[in-house]
Amino acid sequence: METKQLKLKLKIWRQKNLKSAGSFVDYDVQVSPDASFLEMLDELNNKLEIRGEEAVHFESDCREGICGTCGLVINGQPHGPLRKIATCQLHMRNFKDGDTIWVEPFRAKSFSIIKDLMIDRSGFDKILQAGGYISVNTGGVPDANAIPISKDIASLAMDAAECIGCGACVAACKNASAMLFVSAKVSQYALLPQGQPERYERVERMVRVMDELGFGSCTNTYACEAECPKGISVTNIARINREFLMSKVKSKAVEV
Question: How does strand 6-14 pair with strand 100-104?
């Protein structure tokens, strides 16, 4: 039995490049309820190319909710109406026949538009380069259980490490703050023994680069946690604030 197709009207943001003015363009599509949102865009692009029109530019990679590249704002919400999923995990059965769907890129000064729905998230890479790593001495590899870590601490570190760097937290924040992303990357190392060597240097460097790149400040509205596809907790923001304050104390102690 053939599945009934959904008839939808798409209003997609089209913009040639950062310096060009953009606008929403209307498209009518018919799609299976079982198709993912990105598969729906694939089908639209196939039809546009057949007609000799330019395809809608958007990003995707794994399409399994892991890589974080597929972020879109759908009807005003980063990643769409469902909680704790990336755009690639959103299926068309969550919309009704005849719906109008607004699709646009993540909006933030620090996420400049490359083309259409594609944005430049290289700022996150620069923040990670500033301190998102640990020192490892070469030599014999220790056993996995050589350093005792409590289950609770290991779980908290793993929860923070789930962050996929998609940028939904920045898009959801009224200040375009990257604090949830940065705090998750700081927490995943600050909680574990392996992250102690650069612990306080890490937080200072990452926060400094975050500010230099133009990300806004956090005002604790919790919009970031609400839209995060991995449900990263704002408790990590409290932790990074403590880590940052401690870094100032530690640096003064070293000077003395």
Answer: parallel
Element (H, E) at 74: strand 73-74
Cβ contacts of 144 within 8 Å, gap of 6 or more = none
CA 198 to chain CA centroid, Å, is: 25
Cα-Cα end-to-end distance for the chain:
78
Q: At how many degrees (to 10) do helices 122-131 and 179-190 cross?
A: 30
> What is the identity of the amino acid at 7?
K
- Distance, in Å, from the CA atom of 91 to the CA atom of 28, rounded to the nearest integer, reads 17
Q: Report yes or no: 183 and 80 within 8 Å, Cβ to Cβ.
A: no
Strand-strand pairing, 118-119 and 100-104: unpaired
How do beta strands 77-78 and 118-119 pair?
A: unpaired
Q: Mutual orientation of helices 235-255 and 179-190 as an angle, nearest 10°? A: 60
Instruction: Return left, alpha or beta for 65; rule: phi > 0 is left, psi -120 to 50 is alpha, else beta.
Output: left
Instruction: Give the C-alpha separation, 163 to 158, whole Å.
Output: 9
Mean pLDDT by 10 residues, the chain (256 residues): 85 95 97 97 97 97 95 97 96 97 96 97 96 80 79 95 97 97 97 91 96 95 97 97 93 54
